[in-house]
Amino acid sequence: MKKYLKGILATTMVLSMTAALAGCSGTTSETPASDETAEGGETKDTLIMATSADFPPYEYYENQEIVGIDAEIVKAIGEKLGYEVVIEDMNFDSIISAVASGKADLAMAGLTVSEERLQSVDFTDSYATSQQVIIVKEDSPITTVDDLFAEGANHTVGVQTATTGDIYTTDDIEAAGLGTVERYTKATDAIAALTAGKIDCVIIDSEPAKSYVAANEGLKILDTEYVTEEYAIALAKDSELTEPVNTALQELIADGTVQSIIDKYITAE
After folding, report:
1. What is the pLDDT of residue 155?
2. Helix-helix angle 257-265:242-254, to 10 degrees
3. What is the pLDDT of residue 13?
4. How far apart are CA 168 and CA 6, in angstroms?
5. Banded pLDDT at 261 (limits 50, 70, 90)
6. Is the pLDDT of residue 26 over 80?
7. What digits encode the pLDDT tens for the residues 188-225?
8. How far apart are alpha carbons 113 and 205 in whole angstroms?
9. Using CA atoms, how far apart are residues 154 and 159, in angstroms rounded to an integer?
10. Which burial class, exposed, middle or buried, applies to 180 when counting CB atoms under 10 A from its CB (0-12, 13-18, 19+)?
């Protein structure tokens, strides 16, 4: 439980940093990552969003197109600001560097503000709340989050590389000598390892967790979450896009657009 409380305190600090960033903006000579020619010969700016499209319902493939909550929100932002939106799929651990290096204009992929990420990018206000939850086999001896931190615990925990699940468990479990953390490029690979009995549990965000459990017989989500988080949009440090993107996001939250998009994909239980 001591380690669990540590996770809650870390999340509180993250939320404070997110609020602080809401009033910060900078201007540079940057322009969006690419342009495309519209009808009539006019040039229309393109807004490139980096994501990892294995995170339903926030981003996933449907008929070879990336759809989901984040995909719809970024398109609504693009429409407000006059940009054509292009979504690029990549490994999760490449997203922050893609934004920091200018290969993408922004990133949305269930991203939580963290001290490590703040060294490379800036964040908008939060637009959604989620929890890191624990997926286990139905007959697993792990029944609550406390079991991961019990004296003598030695579980093997699966996470997706560079996610907050990876960050938390590295400190709370691996560094504390309470078990081993196995890292996977794709969340689906972690789920496959759990199903095959190679690991004891997977720590991942709650909404994709529901999708993975529904698609894989014999798995369940524990009732107690690991930690609660807030999602935000990442942009390059001092990007001229940070202020307009954050303003557009605030307007879409205020007029109910963001909530209507979330409600379209997540049914209240």
Report:
1. 97
2. 70
3. 38
4. 9
5. very high
6. no
7. 999 999 999 999 999 999 999 999 999 999 999 999 99
8. 14
9. 16
10. middle
Q: Tell me, yes or no, if the pTM score tops 0.70.
A: yes
Q: Tokens standing for 45? A: 């700016």
| 249/77 Cα distance (integer angstroms) | 6
Dist CA 48 CA 86 (whole Å): 5
The kind and range of the H/E element at 27 are none
Is there a contact between 23 and 124 (Cβ–Cβ < 8 Å)? no
C-alpha span between 41 and 43 (Å, rounded): 7
Distance of alpha carbon 92 from alpha carbon 188, whole angstroms: 12
Q: Tabulate helix, strand, coil % of the chain (nearest 5).
A: 40, 30, 30
Buried b / exposed e along 249-262 (16+ C-beta atoms within 10 A): beebbeeebbeebb
Angle at 49 between CA 44 and CA 83, to 5 degrees: 20
Amino acid at 238: D
Q: Of 82, 98, 80, which Cα lies nearest the Cα of 90? A: 98
> What are the phi and psi torsion angles at 268 (to 5°)?
-60, 135
Say whether pLDDT at 2 is over 60: no
Whether residue 32 is predicted with pLDDT greater than 90 in this model: the reply is no
Q: Which helix (H) or strand (E) holds 35?
A: strand 34-37
Nearest-Å Rg of the Cα atoms of the chain is 19
**How sure is the predictor about 181, in pLDDT bands with cuts at 50, 70 and 90?**
very high
For residue 223, with 0-12 CB atoms within 10 Å meaning exposed, 13-18 middle and 19 or more buried, which class applies?
exposed
pLDDT per position as a tens digit, 59-92: 999 999 999 999 999 999 999 999 999 999 999 9
Start-to-end C-alpha separation, the chain: 27
